[in-house]
């Protein structure tokens, strides 16, 4: 992955494969949240982290674990913030509040070889089947 768009496409493909119609499709609002988190994480790595060094999206039974690696050792000060938007807008500063509000289990670890790894979990729920519809077991 080299762009936010390619990372979003990869994450969407993971959701489509894991939450297919026979297993119960993913709630579209959860997928939208996932794609926003992917965009913010990858864009932050490119703009503020010295470039994207790696991206992974791993499907779990109740969501997707996202991992982004970049080349900067700097841990964003907002990474463990409240999720409140910045008081004054200077062209940036909304990414981390979005990530904090939409993701869970956020970790930021410096890598021994330099740079850092940011990992988050984004929950994905299935839509309820239509009344009278029976999904295979």
Automatic annotation (TrEMBL):
Domain Histidine kinase/HSP90-like ATPase: 9-116
One MF annotation (Gene Ontology) recorded for this entry: protein serine/threonine kinase activity
Pfam families xrefs: HATPase_c_2
Keywords on record: Kinase, Serine/threonine-protein kinase, Transferase
Protein name as it appears in the record: Histidine kinase/HSP90-like ATPase domain-containing protein
Organism: Streptomyces aurantiogriseus
């Amino acid at each position: 992955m080299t762009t936010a768009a390619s990372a979003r496409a990869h994450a969407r493909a993971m959701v489509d494969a894991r939450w297919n119609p026979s297993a119960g499709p993913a709630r579209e609002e959860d997928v939208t949240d996932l794609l926003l988190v992917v965009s913010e994480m990858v864009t932050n790595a490119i703009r503020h982290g010295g470039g994207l060094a790696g991206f992974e999206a791993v499907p779990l039974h109740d969501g997707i674990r996202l991992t982004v690696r970049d080349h900067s050792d700097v841990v964003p000060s907002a990474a463990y913030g409240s999720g409140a938007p910045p008081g004054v807008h200077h062209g940036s500063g909304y990414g981390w509040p979005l990530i904090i509000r939409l993701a869970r289990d956020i970790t930021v670890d410096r890598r021994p070889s330099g740079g850092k790894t940011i990992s988050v979990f984004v929950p994905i729920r299935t839509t309820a089947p239509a009344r009278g519809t029976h999904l295979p077991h």
